Amino acid sequence: MGDTSKYKEEKQIALGILAHVDAGKTTLSESMLHKGGIVDNIGRVDKKNAFLDNYELEKERGITIFSKQAVFRIGNMRVTLLDTPGHIDFSAEMERTLQVLDYAVLVINGADGVQGHTRTLWRLLERYQIPVFLFINKMDQFKGNDEEKQEEQERLLASLQKELSTSCLDFGGEWDAAFLENLALCEEEVLEHYLESGEVEEADIVKMVAQRKVFPCYFGSALKEEGVDKFLKGVETYTAERKYGDKFAARVFKIARDAQGNRLTYLKVTGGVLKVKMLLKGENRNAEETEIWEEKVDQIRIYSGARYEMVQEAKAGTVCAVTGLEHTFAGEGLGEEGDSTIPLLEPVISYKIELPPECDAHQMLRKLRQLEEEEPQLHIVWEEQSSEIHAKLMGDVQIEILKSLIKERFGVVVDFGEGSIVYKETIAGPVEGIGHFEPLRHYAEVHLLLEPLERGSGVQFDTDCSEDLLDRNWQRLILTHLEEKEHIGVLTGSAITDIKITLIAGRAHQKHTEGGDFRQATYRAVRQGLKRARSILLEPCYEFCLEIPMENVGRAMTDLQNMGADFEQPMIEDKMAGIKGRAPVSTMRGYQKEVISYTRGFGNLVCSFGGYIECHNAEEVIAAYDYDSEHDLMNPTGSVFCAHGAGFVVPWDQVPDYMHLEERRIADTQSADGEQASDDKKRSESGQADGSWISSAEYKKRQADYWRGEKELEEIFARTYGEVKRRLPSEQEYRRVHITASEPVYRPAKPKKAEKEYLLVDGYNIIFAWEELKELSKINIDSARDRLKDILCNYQGYRKCTLILVFDAYRVKGHREEITKYHNIHVVYTKEAETADMFIEKTVHAIGRKYQVTVATSDGLEQVIIMGQGGKRLSAAGLKEEVDMAAAQMKEHLEAAKPKTKTYLGEYFPEDSGKAE
Q: Is 335 helix (H, G, I), strand (E, B) or coil?
C-alpha cells in the first residue's frame, strides 16, 4: 500500500461491497449513500427504488446483476463505491470488479452466518490480496436484552474467526486491554511496541489493515442504520490512499453501453493522468495477428448510479467510464498496466441457444459477441460442425436474465436447451512437448515442459530458456502465443487447467523465421506434450450446505452417497440437521427440487462453485464425447518438417526422431504409482513409397550440415575477404503459410525434359565441407580453389553436364562479375554485393523450369530455396560420393581398356588361354 502513515488532505479510495445473496448488501450501500448525502431516503430492493439497482431487470428480480458505482464523501475521504452482484450466477461480474479495488466490505447475514458463497468470496479476496472490512448485518433480528445480544455477537465473531480468519476482530466494541492485546498479536512489531507502552498506534492499525493482517468487524443493521456511522468512521480512519506512479496506467474492468448505444470502457487509472483527447494504445485480441490499435478518448465520465459527470481529466485512483475506445476488453491493462489474471470463477454448464426459424445464426452470433464483450461470463461458443451457438453459463438465473437481455437488445426470443457439463483436463506428471513448423521458407522449433499443478491453479506460463539458445524477443512471442489461446486437451477436447507450461528450448533462423511460425510451433508443442502425457479428466463440483428436518436425514445421506458426494457428519440443532460437503455438479443438478419435495418445503440446499475434481465417471464421459485428437484439424498434434523442397507432416509420436534440438527434460510421463505411463506409439523408420516420408536416420544425416554450414563457410570466407554480410530475405520468401483444413503433403515434381543438364557448385561451401580441401585452405585458399577446379574438371568429363563453379567475391571492392572457362568447366566470381547463393538462386530461377538443374551445397536453407525454384539438391557429402564413384569407374574403364596379355600367376588370363596351354 506504500507509505500509509501520511495522508493527503482528501484521500481517495475505491471501496467494493460484496456479499452472499440476501445478506443485505444493497441495503448497506443505500445506507452509506444516505450518510454520504447522495440519496435523501434509503432505497429498498423490495420497493424497487434502490439507487444503484437502476436496470429494469434488477428491479423486477430484486437482485443486483451488474456492478455499478457511486461517488460520495465521508470526512476527509472521497469514496468510489462499487456495488457488485451477490448471486452466484453473476460471480464473474463481481470478480472483474475486485481487480480495481483498494478495499472491500464483506457483508454477512448475522442470522445465517458464513455460507458457501461467503467462503468463495473470502478466497477471492485473498487471491487478489484486497484488505477487508466486515459488516455483520441484520443484527436487529435478534431479540432479547443487551446481554443476550452481546452473547450472540460473540458467538458470531467466534464463527468468523473459525471459518475465515483468527484476525477478524470486533472494532465496534469496547477497546479494552483484551482487545488491544488481540490486536497487537496480529503483528510482531506492534506486539513489541504494545508490551513496552501498552498502546497500539493508529498508523500501525492502518498498516495492518492494508497488509491483511487484521480484519475489522462491525455489527449492526443497515436497514435501521444501526452501526453504520461507526462502520464508516472506521473505514475513514483505518484506510490509506494508494501511491501511484507518474506514468499513465489503467486497468479496464468492464465494457457496457449507454442508452444511446455509446460504448463505455470502465477503468481505474492506476498511474499518471488520463485526459480527454489522449491517445491510447493496445492490442486487438480478436485479430488473427497481433494488431496495435490507437484511439482517442472522447469523454471521461464519473458515474454515480445512472447519472454521470463529465470531466477533462482523471487522476490516478479515479474510477471512470471512457467513450471513444472500440477495442478494449475487460481485464486489459493500458499504458504501464499489465493485463489481469484469468478469473477464478468460471461457468460450469454449457447450453445450446435455440434460435427461432427465421433468425440467421451467423447474424445472431455477431450480436451475441457484442453482448459477450459486455458480459464475458457468457462465453459464447460457435460449434462449427453443427452450426450451433452455445453459451457457457453459471446457472438458471443467468439464463433467464440473458433471455431478457437478448429480447430487449435485439428483439429476438430465444430458448436454451438442456445444459451439458463443462469438463476440463489436466495431466498426471511432467512431460516435454515438442513443436516444429518448417514448410518451405519458414522455420521454428519449440520445446515446452508441461507440469501438473494443484487443483484450482489454472494454467501458468514461464520461461527457462537461455537467451544464447533463443533470443528474448522470440521467447516473449512464444509466451504471448501460449497466453492468447485456450488450449484444449486430448481426451474430450475440453480446456486444460492446473498445468504450468515452461519454455525450455527453441530455435529460430534469422532469414526464414517469423512470428506466425512460432505460433504454429508453440500450439503443436502443447498438443504433442498432452499426447505424450497421461491426461486426467476433471469435472466441476459444488460445495453444498443441506438443511433438512431430522426425519429426512436418512434419505438425504443415501442421496448424497449415490451422487458421489463427500460430506461431514450431520449437525443437529432444533430438530433440523445440517450437512456440509462437496459433490459433482453433474449428479447434484436439479437436487434442490427433490429436497423441497421430500421435505415438504422445510428443506433448503445452498450450493457454491467448489472448483474442479477428478471425474467420477471419466470413461463414460470420454466415450460419450468420442473426441479424436489426431483428426482435429484446428488443433494438430503433429509437426511439419521439410524435405525434397516441401513440407511434410510427422505424427506426434515420431516428432522426437526428427527434431533439431535434443530433449532436455522428460521424455515420458510417470504415473502416480511410479509405473511408466507413456502414450508414445511405436516409431516407424520406414517411409512411404512416394517419398513423402523418410526415416529418422536418413533425415538426421541430411540435416547434419544444416546448422553449421553457413557458420563454417563464413569463417573461411572471412579469412579471405572479411566478415560476411547477411542478405535480407525478399518479401516473397517471407510469405506466410497457413495450415487449416489440411496439412501440406509432399508430391514429387513432374520430371523435366532431359534436354540439357546443369550442375551449379557453391565453391566455398564445398571447400569447407571436404576434409582434404578444408585442411588445404588453412594453408592457402588459392591452392584449395585450384584443387577443387581440377577435381570438378575430371568429374565433368565423366558426367558430361554443364558445370558452373561459383565463388563469392561480394566483399572485393569494385569487383565485377567474372565468368571464365577453366578447361571444361565454367568458373564464376560474383560481383561486389552479390553472394554465391544469390547468384545460384538467380540462375536456377531463370533456367530451373526448363532444364535439369542440380545445386551442390550443404547450406540447408539454400537447398530449400532451390527446391522451390524447381531445382534439385546435392549435399557436399553427396557430391564427394559422386566424385569418388566417378573416379573409381573411370579407373575401371582404364583398366578394362588395357591389352589382355598373359602375366604372372594370380593375374588375369583370357578365358580360353588355359586350353591353349
A: strand
Are the CB atoms for 811 and 765 separated by under 8 Å? Answer: no
DSSP letter assigned to residue 907: S
pLDDT tens-digit profile of 77-104? Answer: 899 998 877 666 566 667 778 888 999 9
- The HSE-up count of residue 275 (CA atoms within 13 Å, CB side) is 6
Residue 199's alpha-carbon distances to 43, 146, 205, in angstroms, are 41, 29, 11
The x, y and z cell numbers of residue 916, run together, are: 591353349
CA angle 47, 112, 34 (to 5 degrees): 40
Those residues with Cβ within 8 angstroms of residue 223's Cβ, 6 or more apart along the chain or in another chain: 24, 27, 31, 42, 44, 138, 140
Length of the chain (residues): 917
For residue 73, the tally of other CB atoms under 10 A from its CB is 14
- Is the Cα torsion angle 878, 880, 886, 892 positive or negative in sign? negative
Q: At what angle do helices 177-184 and 188-197 cross, to 10 degrees?
A: 140
Cell 518451405 belongs to 440
State residue 498's pLDDT score: 93
- Concatenate the DSSP letters of all residues of 853-881 into one string: EEEE---HHHHHHHHHTT-EEE-HHHHHH
What residues contact residue 98 under an 8 Å CB cut-off, 6+ apart?
16, 84, 104, 124, 125, 128, 130
Residue 667 has pLDDT above 50, yes or no: no
Nearest CA to 379 among 354, 405, 426, 346?
A: 346
536 close to 612: Cβ distance less than 8 angstroms: no
pLDDT at 727: 40
Q: How many CB atoms lie within 10 A of CB 92?
A: 22
The winner for highest mean pLDDT among 82-91, 683-692, 718-727 is: 82-91
Query: Is the per-residue pLDDT at 862 higher than 90?
Result: no
Q: Which amino acid is at 468?
A: D
Q: What is the dihedral of CA 360, 364, 366, 368, to 10 degrees?
A: -170
Rounded Cα–Cα distance for residues 839 and 559 (Å): 81
> How far apart are alpha carbons 675 and 534 in whole angstroms?
11
547 by DSSP, 3-state: which?
strand
- Cα 874 from Cα 761, distance rounded (Å): 9
Q: What pLDDT sits at residue 505? A: 92
Q: Are 29 and 39 in contact (CB under 8 A)?
A: no
DSSP reduced 3-state for 370: helix
* Cα–Cα distance, 13 to 318 (Å, whole number): 8
Residues 6+ apart with CB under 8 A from 90: 64, 65, 377, 394, 398
Instruction: For residues 225 and 663, give the distance between their C-alpha atoms in angstroms, rounded to a whole number.
Output: 67
Q: Is 496 exposed, middle or buried (0-12, 13-18, 19+ CB in 10 A)?
A: buried
Cα–Cα distances in Å, from 734 out to 514, 709, 710, 730? 8, 22, 20, 7
Per the listing, cell 543438364 goes with 757
Contact 502, 470 (CB under 8 A): no
Q: What pLDDT, on a 0 to 100 scale, did the predictor assign at position 671?
A: 36
Cell numbers at 909, concatenated: 588370363
Amino acid sitting at position 20: H
Q: What is the DSSP string of 267-294?
A: EEEEESEEETT-EEEEE-TTSSS--EEE
Please check whether residue 28 is in contact with residue 219, taking contact to mean a CB–CB distance below 8 angstroms. no
Sequential DSSP letters for 84-103: ---SGGGHHHHHHHHTT-SE
Indicate the burial class of 244 (C-beta count within 10 angstroms; 0-12, 13-18, 19 or more).
middle
